[in-house]
């Protein structure tokens, strides 16, 4: 188990025979059935799939686990930490914050062109990839945006304003 959020839990999955790693989000089918818009997360990500820094979707399906029904969604696994974790452990740097702001503005611009929004933009939905030892750029840490679903997942909670979410992130990071 990697993490849990308001909607579901995310697990690490590895197929060692082909050296493939994915993240799998499990959401109870009961929770999914309360909102018919749950596929909006996948639709948004697919619309933005050409952009760098958007965690890629692979597939979804249903599964029965210990008698409970779940929807599972398979995503690329990003090795690293969430921005929230880096802020909490005071590992955030000014350059990393600049990279986050640049990535956020790229995503917001594209979302604006598509007339969509992230809807739940906060530090827990930004992933900072570990340094890739195979990268030509030393110490480069890629910024990834994930979890486009919650803002449209609930009928009761309106989507969060993306720019206000970014402002909160900047404030949290600068306080550290």
Summarize the structure.
It is built from 6 helices and 8 strands. With 176 residues, it is of the alpha+beta class. Strands 1-2-3-5-4 form a 5-stranded antiparallel beta sheet. A 3-stranded antiparallel beta sheet has the order 6-7-8.
Description of the structure:
This protein is α+β, with helices and mostly antiparallel strands and 176 residues long. 33% of the residues lie in helices and 26% in strands. The chain has 6 helices and 8 strands, in the order E-E-E-H-H-E-E-E-H-H-E-E-H-H. The model has no long low-confidence stretch (mean pLDDT 90).
Q: Count the DSSP helices.
A: 6
What structural class do helix, strand and pairing data support?
alpha+beta
The multimeric state of the shown protein is single chain
Number of strands: 8
Ranges with pLDDT <50 over ≥5 residues?
Answer: none
The percent range for strand residues is 25-35%
The average pLDDT value, as a whole number, equals 90
Order of helical and strand elements: EEEHHEEEHHEEHH
Sheet bearing the most strands, described?
5 strands, antiparallel
How many angstroms separate the termini?
28 Å
Rounded to the nearest angstrom, the radius of gyration is 16 Å
Name the descriptors.
33% helix, 26% strand, five-stranded antiparallel β-sheet, 176 residues, three-stranded antiparallel β-sheet, globular, alpha+beta
Q: How are the elements arranged and paired?
A:
Elements: E1 3-4, E2 9-15, E3 20-28, H1 29-33, H2 40-47, E4 57-65, E5 68-76, E6 80-82, H3 83-88, H4 94-114, E7 126-129, E8 143-145, H5 150-153, H6 162-175
